[in-house]
Amino acid sequence: MSYQHPPAVRRVLESLVPVVCPPEAVALGLTAAIVDHVALTMSAVPPLFRRGLVLGLTTYDLAAMVWPAARGRRAHRLPPELAERWFERWERGLTPVERELTHAVGQLLKFGCYEQPAMLARLGYTPQAWIEQVTRRRLQVYGDDIRRAEAAIVAPDPLRPPVRRPRTEVG
Amino acid sequence: MVALPRPAVAQGAVPDRVFTRDTLRGDTVLDADVVIVGSGAGGATLAAELAEAGLDVVMIEEGRYWTTRDFTAQASAMTRQLYRDGGASMAIGDPPVMFQEGRAVGGSTVINGGMSWRTPERILERWRREAGLEHIEAPDMEAHFARVERRIHVRHQDPETVGRDNELLKRGADAKGWKVIPNLRNQVHCAGSNNCAFGCPTGAKQSALVSYVPRALHFGARLLSDVKVERILLHGKRAIGVAGRVVGEGERPGPRVTVRAKLVVAACGAIQTPALLARSGVRSPSGRLGHNLSLHPNVKLVATFDEPVRGWEGVHQAYQVREFEGEGLLFAAVNIPPAVIAMTSHERGAALGALMDAYDRTVIAGMLCEDTATGRVRTINGRPQAFYQLAQFDADKLVRGVALLAELLFAAGARSIITPFAGVPTLRSGDDTRLLYAHPIPRSAMEVVTVHMMGTAAMGADRTRAVTDGHGLVHDAERLMVCDASLFPTPIGVNPMETIMALATRSAAHVLDNLERFS
After folding, report:
1. Could you give the C-alpha distances from B224 to B58, B86, B218, B261, in angstroms and in order?
2. B91-130 exposure pattern, b = at least 16 Cβ within 10 A, e = fewer
3. Could you say which of A9, B35, B324, B510 would form a disulfide bridge with B261 (CB–CB 3.0 to 4.6 Å)?
């Protein structure tokens, strides 16, 4: 699974980071990392969905040129205030295509934003440390029970004898 | 039979009898008594039961073989590894419903919350009455449920692992005087790492990956992972095997795999199973294959408290609020990682930042709704596509459920609550729940997700109305069985894993009692 944004799509996504993500994401210099993460996520989604997003973002970019306020500029070249207004127009668009595109792109960017370690650190979100702590405690307190349960996984069932001799050789 | 090479992977990483794309390097043809497509709740359970009885069983899994040590709290990486389509599967409708399917050895049991509930008696009675199923009522199912519960260690949580988010949920329910019960989960001293949805990093959750799959392997079953079954091989109406391709790096199709068997079982879930049957040319005289999709629409509320909650510290869903079970509504605390909260939030920009800054003080509460509408899985170019239209009755039920859950959270001390409805302002007090009824909330404004897809190859005695018989054997076909949540004639109103496993246990007993039909 490898997907790379076409350059034009990458430019649009970079221009949308300040619109969708919190200001601190931009302040922390995470724009490129967030857009990279979107590519990673898009590598896992169905190809049809991926192609739709690429087409939709290209349309979003070009369609701005016929919006009078943009004065012929593509969406990724709009100043912040106009970029915000253009996104909002699509968010509240008359067609489901506009609304679904901004919804999906927003989801991808927000997901990518809050997967950045710097953003998670701001929240004090430290699950891995917690996992390591409780894993140790579990083994210390319940080690014997756990070993018994593991043995039971492969213990034969006395109530249901085999109808045939169990297989021992494979392949 | 073609001999398979031993896995050429690191010692201990992959057990004997598990063959992956690293070892399936050439075209492979195998013979077996039973071939099972899917290694989740249905497939793994059936495999273990039949292998223990001495049958030669081959399980085929499209996803990879991951082990406990591979599971971390990195939501993005785990989602790409363990979920089909990176978790971005969508049922088309109003609203679109995002759904998740596991795609790994162990299936969706690897990524579920571990809730283990028997099918409610009223549901089993309904199946008997409406689908004409025999020997399906609670007394008939007792032995099957008990057997499953022993295998996967169904029990209550050790009290020290209950986190603050669940304590607050219980406090709210108690304050309202509502029925709240400790959850039953398949776990051996669950540590409370709250990472269930991304694979249990301690191995405590007894998913199929660490229970039924190793049991099946121990008793001689073989498991081919990284193999996508393209079609069931048919000779007339008789299923005689399956054909597929190894899923290579980058999803590229690799060598061909053919397994010939006396019994073929589709156990790949309510979305993939009807597609597999359809693209194999299986026709149901009922015309109902792929129909009858129900999915327990699920919505989430984000409640902010003054006190630290740190919802990631403690078990996932220690309690369920059952006060409104009769209306088909269940509530639970379901902590989910920041990236997923942000993604499903309607906020953006600075407002999103403000919401997320309170993440360590939030309780995320979810609601399961027993739905009345049904959707459909269509097979388009061999791929399944789900369609589902939320019924207005169910949409109204979601609004009522959100209002009730908001009342509970305010009673627990919440300061503000964000609803799953776009356009509804943040609720600041219990009185604000009236806002939910002030104007009709359009279905398109609802953020609905699900992990419970059911019913697309439903059981029933009447071959003109159901796809399979009461044991999952496909009507009007021979030696072809379905063994997953596709079988449910109706939604069940509780988490479906144990029902799937119990039905698989029951189907295994049926096969063993009628072996002459499958020899």
Report:
1. 7, 22, 15, 15
2. bebebbbbbbbbbbbbbbbbbbbbbbbbbbeebbebbbee
3. B35
The pLDDT of residue B2 is above 90: no
A125 vs chain B: nearest CA distance in angstroms?
7
Does B51 contact A at CB distance below 8 Å? yes
B19 burial class (0-12, 13-18, 19+ CB within 10 angstroms)?
buried
**3-state SS, residue B129:** helix
Say which residue the tokens 């993005």 belong to.
B76
Question: CA A14 from chain center: how many Å?
Answer: 16
Question: Tokens standing for A148?
Answer: 């018994």
Q: Is the pLDDT of residue B419 over 60?
A: yes
Listed range (B73-87, B395-409, B468-482) with the worst mean pLDDT: B73-87
Please spell the DSSP secondary structure of B12-80, one letter per residue.
TTS-TTEE-TTT--S-EEEEEEEEEE--SHHHHHHHHHHHHTT--EEEE-SSB---GGG--S-HHHHHH
Looking at the complex, does the CB of residue B142 fall below 8 Å from at least one CB of chain A?
no
In terms of Cα–Cα distance, which of B6, B65, B20, B56 is closest to B36?
B56
Among B159, B206, B101, B21, which Cα is nearest to B9's? Answer: B21
Provide the angle, in degrees to the nearest 10, between the axes of the packed helices A31-42 and B75-82: 10
- Residue B243 has a pLDDT of 98
pLDDT tens-digit readout, B157-170? 999 999 999 999 99
Q: How many residues does chain B have?
A: 519
Token pair in block for residue B247: 């899923």
- Contact of B63 with chain A, judged by CB distance below 8 Å, is answered with no
Judge whether residue A168 has pLDDT over 60.
no
Q: How far apart are CA B184 and CA B504, in angstroms?
A: 20
Domains present along chain B, CATH in parentheses: 26-80+102-153+188-283+458-516 (3.50.50.60)
Q: Annotated active-site positions of B, please?
A: 452
- The minimal CB distance from A22 to the residues B74, B222, B350 is found for B350
Nearest to B44 by CA among B260, B211, B229: B211
Do residues B506 and B473 make contact, with C-beta atoms less than 8 angstroms apart? no
- How far apart are alpha carbons B47 and B61 in whole angstroms? 12
pLDDT of A164: 58
The DSSP element (H or E) to which B302 belongs, if any, is strand B298-304
Inspect the interface and report whether the beta carbons of A115 and B75 lie closer than 8 Å: yes
Dist. CA B405–CA B413, nearest whole Å: 13
Residue with more model confidence, B57 or B435: B57
Cross-chain Cβ contact A110/B339 below 8 Å: yes
pLDDT of residue B10 exceeding 50, the answer is no
Average pLDDT over residues A118-141: 95
Torsion of CA B395, B396, B399, B405, to 10 degrees: -110
ipTM: 0.90
Over 80: is that where the pLDDT of B354 sits?
A: yes
Contact at CB, B76 and A40, closer than 8 angstroms:
yes
Mean pLDDT of B47-76: 96
The sign of the torsion formed by the CA atoms of B264, B269, B274, B276 equals negative
- Whether residue B182 is predicted with pLDDT greater than 70 in this model: the reply is yes
Nearest by CB: B220 against A124, A134, A170: A170
pLDDT over 60 at A104, yes or no: yes
CA distance B248 to A98: 36
Tens of pLDDT, residue by residue over A9-50, are: 999 999 999 999 999 999 999 999 999 999 999 998 888 889
When pLDDT is averaged across residues B255-264 and rounded to a whole number, the result is 98
Chain B, 392 to 451: residues with Cβ < 8 Å from chain A are: none
